[in-house]
Write a structure and sequence with these properties.
This protein is α/β, with parallel strands linked by helices and about 800 residues long. The protein folds into two domains: about 375 residues, 3-Layer(aba) Sandwich (Rossmann fold); about 300 residues, Rossmann fold (3-Layer(aba) Sandwich), CATH 3.40.50.2000. Strands 1, 4, 7, 8, 11, 12, 13, 14, 18 and 19 form a ten-stranded mixed sheet that branches. It has a six-stranded parallel sheet with strand order 22-21-20-23-24-25, sandwiched between helices. A three-stranded antiparallel sheet has the order 15-17-16. Strand 5 and strand 6 form a beta hairpin. It is globular. The relative contact order is 0.10. The structure holds ligand CBF. The site of ligand CBF has 14 residues, from helix 6.
């Protein structure tokens, strides 16, 4: 059989012909009568098809080589728009542009119809997408597994300054990027009971069964043939679940009850967990994902292998945070109960198969599940977890004889008011490797949060500092700067070898280059200003310093401190103290978890302060605040290239890594930040002189807390802070009360250092050449933060695999 496969040497004519053919045969229409959706979907298919040939070749080469695969399990993926990415990765950008223009179509109007799959919340989900990109680019055989939520992360609007959440029906018009594979459906059980078989084996008789239906999207590598996939699962009810007789009796709701109950599992990302039912649904989602993924992984393993002792050699499962950790119990269940393996053999295979990435230091972010809930929903898994824990605690007891405290500390089962399964403990016990996501984070994990485990198994603990995709966050986001860099370096290979950016260093001292760099930054600020005006009605000055804080709203990230500084600037300017003031645009963007009231209050305050500033005719020539709603990957791609200053101001010891810090530094923004997360490594690499450091470090934080932190003292001693808090109290007294009496994240303690450091930023901005020099050096020295390097670190330290290059 021969297929028309290769699009190498494509001309605009070929591309245009394929668009027309897709319009005709896939949408049943012609260019003359096509709707905007018809045209967009046909163009998307045309681009997608240009990756299929590479994907088929990749799959065939993987089949032949039977390598060790990396299976990345994650509840979240923030993939970003696919059209711009796939045009770039298929090498058809230019050809497509000419073809579309030839057909009288506007590439930018088509791009606007491309929908971002918002299948994640924030850093962890975007990291997953960057790692998939880098794995494909590094020729690592890999599959990402996740859930195909019907509704992704909510859309954010503001009403009276407060966040309003709207559903994100991202596949409303269909998703042209995915391939459905109904034949690979899997069956997932819930509830029920267990029955003894022989030895430790049991049979689980589920009380409810749901189907998982996969579809996959292509994950192309850049500058290589490899195209991997991400496989997303959607929950479906069994075929016969529609109750025809009830429907006939007019009981329309009851007739589809089972369908609705089943499909609810993949309905939304992170269902509200403030109710018992919501929590149960979340656990159901987790079990659904891991069961579908594991069954698919075993199916793939069996294509070329038959001996279970080869499993861990062929299968490496990376657990992205605790959400997929139930996979450890599920694999044990499959091996012991279904495959009849001895417990010890199954445990050895399981432990060697899994590796776990921890993304937090906040104890409250380490997931736990009530034993009673797990017992009811997943009775066999609970028995398995108890047994894993029992055997583990025997090991602990042997190592620390008589030390009851140690047993309590390390146990997978937490004993409080109610027994709870500590998922991070299960992850560490059931994995061959555990890693933090920045040097400081990994160090603190081993010293504090997971200390007992690091003492027990020091060799199991690693650091893999996060990274970002330079393709997405430089080449696609910032084409102007990319072009300038390519022109200077001489070729585009820096996009896959980001350390080559160091070749820009001499250019930092070249006045003509600095001028062009500034011009690019300015044009990017002009683009942002257009967008901000359209989105919010706030007019921005493209010559003002663009000061950016983009991230989830969380108290520890301290958006509140950002707002306090804005109020301080407002007061100063309003009083006429403008001698040292440089015009600034404060850009804020980020969502808060719907039930996180403290974060939502801060967001509301930020919007109110924005109104105060923007509507004050004395202040607004110097200062503007724009809060761009509905932050997502596409908005990040727009904001980051325009940024001059990157706000990374979390309380030291709270941010695991951060990745917006890397994206902004790569795009030439200077950082104002604390010694937290990956800020530490950014400062080490770009240079202390090119980084505005302020605030307590982790030792200072601990010492202050030990001494007894009294926020009032800072208020008493700092007249400007007093004035600022008085203004804030006029908007929201509760926020000020909390700051003065509790201030868990030491905002007042770091406030003065922060504001003084911001003054230093303003002075530095006036030294335009020095600033631009530092901006260029930030870019030139950010090569380390490429996700390609992250993937290479995983390969070397955790996965123990090498790239598999696909010919052609
Ligand atoms: O490691 C990726 C990111 O993950 C988080 O967003 C998370 O969800 N735990 C952390 O908060 C970030 O610090 C980290 O960069």
């Amino acid at each position: 059989m021969t297929y028309v496969t290769s699009h190498a040497g494509d001309t605009p004519g070929d591309f245009g012909r394929d668009v027309l053919s897709n319009l005709y045969y896939q949408r049943g229409t012609t260019l003359e009568s096509a709707s905007a959706q018809d045209t967009y979907q046909s163009v998307a298919l045309t681009v997608r098809n240009r990756l299929v040939d590479r994907y088929i070749r990749t799959a065939a080469a993987h089949y032949r080589a039977n390598p060790r695969f990396i299976y990345y399990l994650s509840a979240e993926y923030m993939l970003g728009k696919q059209l711009d990415q796939n045009l770039l990765y298929s090498g058809t950008e230019e050809c497509a542009r000419r073809a579309l223009e030839g057909l009288g179509l506007s590439p930018s109007e088509l791009a606007a119809l491309d929908v971002e799959p918002g299948l994640g919340n924030g850093g962890l989900g975007r990291l997953a997408a960057c790692l998939l990109d880098a794995m494909a680019t590094q020729d690592i055989p890999a599959v990402g597994y996740g859930i195909r939520y019907d509704f992704g992360i909510f859309k954010q609007d503001f009403r009276d300054g407060g966040q309003v959440e709207r559903p994100d029906n991202w596949t409303f018009y269909g998703n042209p990027w995915e391939f459905h594979a109904s034949d690979d459906q899997q069956t997932v059980g819930f509830y029920g009971h267990t029955e003894p078989l022989d030895g430790l084996r049991k049979s689980w008789v589920p009380g409810e069964v749901v189907l998982g239906e996969p579809s996959h999207m292509l994950v192309p590598g850049y500058g290589t043939t490899t195209v991997n996939i991400i496989r997303l699962w959607r929950a479906r009810a069994a075929r016969e679940s529609f109750d025809l007789s009830r429907f006939g009796a007019g009981q329309y709701g009851e007739a589809v009850e089972e369908i609705v109950r089943s499909e609810n599992i993949s309905k939304v990302l992170y269902p509200d967990d403030s109710t018992e039912l919501g929590r149960e649904l979340r656990l159901k989602q987790q079990h659904f994902l891991v069961t579908c993924a594991l069954r698919d992984i075993v199916r793939r393993f069996r294509l070329r292998n038959s001996d279970w002792d080869d499993f861990a050699g062929k299968v490496m499962i990376q657990l992205n945070d605790t959400h997929p950790v139930m996979a450890i119990a599920e694999l044990m269940r499959m091996l012991v109960d279904e495959e009849g393996l001895e417990w010890d053999r199954a445990w050895s295979i399981t432990r060697r198969t899994f590796a776990y990435t921890c993304h937090t230091l906040l104890p409250e972010a380490l997931e736990t599940w009530p034993v009673a809930l797990v017992q009811r929903l997943l009775p066999r898994h609970m028995e398995i977890i108890f047994l894993i824990n029992h055997l583990f605690l025997q090991e602990v007891a042997a190592r620390y004889p008589g030390d009851e405290g140690k047993l309590r500390e390390l146990s997978i089962i937490g004993e409080g008011d109610e027994q709870r399964v500590r998922m991070a403990h299960l992850a560490v016990v059931g994995s061959s490797a555990v890693n933090g996501v920045a040097e400081l984070h990994s160090r603190l994990l081993a010293a504090t949060t997971l200390h007992g485990f690091a003492e027990l198994w020091p060799g199991r603990f690693h650091n893999v500092t996060n990274g970002i995709s330079p393709r997405r966050f430089m080449r696609l986001a910032n084409p102007r700067l990319s072009e300038l860099i390519t022109e200077r370096i001489g070729d585009e290979r820096w996009l896959t070898d980001l350390d080559r950016l160091t070749e820009l260093e001499p250019a930092a001292d070249d006045p003509a280059f600095r001028e062009r760099w500034r011009e690019v930054k300015r044009l990017n600020r002009v683009d942002l200003a257009h967008h901000a005006l359209a989105a919010t009605g706030v007019a921005l000055d493209p010559d003002a310093l663009c000061d950016v804080m983009i991230k989830r709203f969380h108290e520890y990230k301290r958006q509140l401190m950002r707002v306090l500084h804005v109020v301080a600037l407002h007061r100063r300017i309003h009083r006429g103290e403008v001698a040292d003031v440089v015009p600034r645009t404060i850009v804020l963007a980020g969502k808060a978890a719907p039930g996180y009231y403290a974060a939502k209050r801060i967001m509301r305050l930020a919007n109110m302060v924005a109104g105060l500033v923007n509507n004050d005719p004395v202040v607004s020539p110097y200062l503007r605040v724009v809060f761009l709603p509905d932050y997502n990957v596409s908005r990040a791609q727009l904001i980051i290239p325009a940024a001059d200053l990157s706000e990374q101001i979390s309380l030291a010891g709270k941010e695991a890594s951060g990745t917006s810090n890397m994206k902004l530094a790569l795009n030439g923004a200077l950082t104002i930040g604390t010694l937290d997360g990956a800020n530490v490594e950014i400062r080490d690499r770009v240079g202390a002189a090119e980084f505005f450091l302020f605030g307590l470090d982790t030792t200072g934080v601990a010492a202050l807390k030990d001494r007894g932190y009294v926020p009032w003292e800072y208020y008493d001693r700092d007249p400007e802070l007093r004035e600022v808090l008085d203004v804030v109290a006029g908007f929201d007294k509760e926020i000020v009360d909390d700051l003065l009496h509790r201030d868990e994240y030491l905002t007042l303690a770091d406030y003065r250092a922060y504001v003084d450091c911001q003054d230093a930023v303003s002075r530095a901005w006036q030294e335009r050449d020095l600033w631009t020099r530092a901006s260029i050096l930030n870019t030139a020295r950010s090569g380390f933060f490429s996700a390609d390097r992250t993937v290479r670190d995983y390969c070397r330290d955790i996965w123990h695999i090498s790239p598999l290059r696909i010919d052609g």
